[in-house]
Amino acid sequence: MxxxxxxxxxxxxxxxxxxxxxxxxxxxxxxxxxxxAGLKRLVGDELTGQRWLDVxxxxxxxxxxxxxxxxxxxxxxxxxxxxxxTTRALLTQLAPTATWRASEHSVFDLAQAGFGQFxxxxxxxxxxxxxxxxxxxxxxxxxxxxxxxxxxxxxxxxPLCSLWKLEKRFYAHASPRTQRLLRAGYIxxxxxxxxxxxxxxxxxxxxYQTNRGMDFAHDVHDWMGGWPYESITPAQTAQAMSELGxxxxxxxxxxxxxxxxxxxxxxxxxYRKT
Length: 274
Prior knowledge:
Layout: H1 16-24, H2 29-43, E1 51-55, H3 61-68, E2 73-78, H4 81-94, E3 100-104, H5 110-113, E4 118-124, H6 133-142, E5 144-155, H7 161-172, H8 176-196, H9 201-206, H10 216-225, H11 234-243, E6 246-252, E7 266-273
Parallel strand pairs: 1-2, 1-4, 2-3, 4-5
Antiparallel strand pairs: 5-7, 6-7
C-alpha cells in the first residue's frame, strides 16, 4: 500500500459515509433483528454490561445491536463525518435513553482520544480500508481491555486482489456517471454468472443478506469503491494476532470465491486479549 497520503485524512478514502447514509434510510425492524443476530453469532452473551467500541461505525446499525444485546456503553467512531452523523441520527431515534456517543476519529488516533479500554472492540470490514492494515490492527487491539474481545472482519486475500486494488483506486476518484457505468457492467456480469450456474438474479437480490447490514446495490458500490484496499489470509491474521497477545475464540471463514472474480468476501474473527 502507498503510505504517502495522510491516512488520517478522509478525502484520501472512498466516500463510505455517503453510501451508509443512503443505506440508513432503508433500515427496518427486520434489518435490526438481522444485525442483532449477526452480532450475537460473533460475541454470544459477552456483551452484557461491557463497554463497546465500534471502529468504523458506518450506519450505526451494529452499535444499536450492541445496545440491544446489553452493552453498558457504546462509543462509535468513524473517520468519515457522514458516518458519524448517520450513526448519531440512528441512535438518537432508536436508542434515546441508552449510554452512547459517536465521534469523528480514525483508528490511528484512538490512543490519543482518551476513550480508555473496552470489553469488546468491533470493526467489521473497516481495517482493510485504512491504508495500513497492520497498523490498524495494532491500534484496535490496543483499545481492548485485558480479557476482552477484538471482533474484526477482514477481506480474504485472493489471486485477483491486485487487479481489484487498481479498479478501486480508479472507481473511488471517478465521476458519479463513470461509477454508475462501472456498476452496471459489474452487475450485468454478475447476472450472467448466476444464470450460467442455474440461479435466478431476482431471487438472489430478494434473499441477499450480509452480516454487516447492507443491501445488494449499496454493497456493490461499497465493494467497487472501497479504497484504500488490502486483504489478508487467515494464516497471516492468526500470526498477527498472536504477536499482539491475542488467542482465537472463534472464526467464520468465507470460502465462496477463492479466485476473487467478483470480489473477496470477509473472514470474521473473534480474538481474546490474554
